[in-house]
Specification:
Blueprint lengths: L1 E2 L6 E2 L7 H21 L26 H7 L4 H15 L11 H22 L3 H19 L9 E5 L13 E4 L6 E2 L6 E2 L4 H18 L1
Antiparallel strand pairs: 1-2, 3-4, 5-6
Helix pairs in contact: 1-4, 1-5, 3-4, 3-5
Length: 216
């Protein structure tokens, strides 16, 4: 038994990424082109709602939103994905891809290249965990543009989700109770835990933690 390099949970497949993290990484990769397209609507900076005392601002506002421009530019989303695809080709001693066309076309090509190599990445590549984590953080960065949230909204940590998948694997994603909410919801698998289940939830979390420690 090995440990998944992304969720750090025991994995009996012997792979670098467990089946759950492999599937999640594939979904994140598949979403990147659509997220890239969606960012176009956020290129214009938000209009100021304040009342200036001066009729002329001290500095001219940027014509586009910088964070969005960075993500959509050659060194943003496409740069991250192309760099990882290049690393995969290097590790597998394959001919390096030749990027061409628009940034959007390059992103789609690089995503398709990584998707084609996911079976090898999850099973055979020691860099799989770092790769999957960076793709996860990239999608989080893009989604934060669509739905920004304050740091305090992360809430109180409850523990690891004890939900069991059909294949017998435990979800293991971090659970948090956000301010103002009365139900703990796993953002990974979607399981919900209302207050009536919290005693049992704590018992399951403690049991899974002991099992993971014994297997380590």
């Amino acid at each position: 038994m090995t440990q998944c390099l992304l969720c750090e949970q025991p994995d009996d497949t012997g792979s670098y990424l467990c089946p759950g993290c492999t599937k999640a990484t594939i979904v994140r990769l598949e979403c990147l082109p659509a997220l890239y397209d969606g960012l176009a609507a956020f290129l214009a900076p938000a209009a100021s709602t304040g009342h200036e005392r001066s009729s002329k601002p001290a500095h001219a506002p940027l014509p586009v939103a910088g964070a969005v421009l960075d993500l959509r530019g050659p060194g943003g989303m496409v740069g991250v994905v192309e760099d990882w695809l290049s690393s995969v080709h290097d590790a597998r001693r394959m001919q390096q891809p030749a990027p061409g066309g628009s940034v959007e076309a390059r992103l789609k090509a690089a995503v398709n290249g990584l998707l084609a190599n996911m079976p090898w990445i999850s099973v055979s590549w020691p860099q799989a965990g770092t790769f999957a984590e960076e793709i996860r953080e990239l999608t989080k960065s893009v989604r934060s543009i669509f739905s920004p949230s304050a740091p305090t909204e992360r809430g109180t940590r409850v523990g690891r989700c004890p939900a069991e998948f059909a294949n017998g694997l435990i979800c293991g994603a971090e659970l948090r109770l956000k301010p103002g909410e009365r139900v703990v919801t796993c953002e990974w698998c979607g399981c919900t835990y209302p207050p009536a289940t919290w005693v049992g939830l704590k018992l399951l979390i403690d049991h899974d933690e002991r099992t993971a420690q014994d297997a380590a």
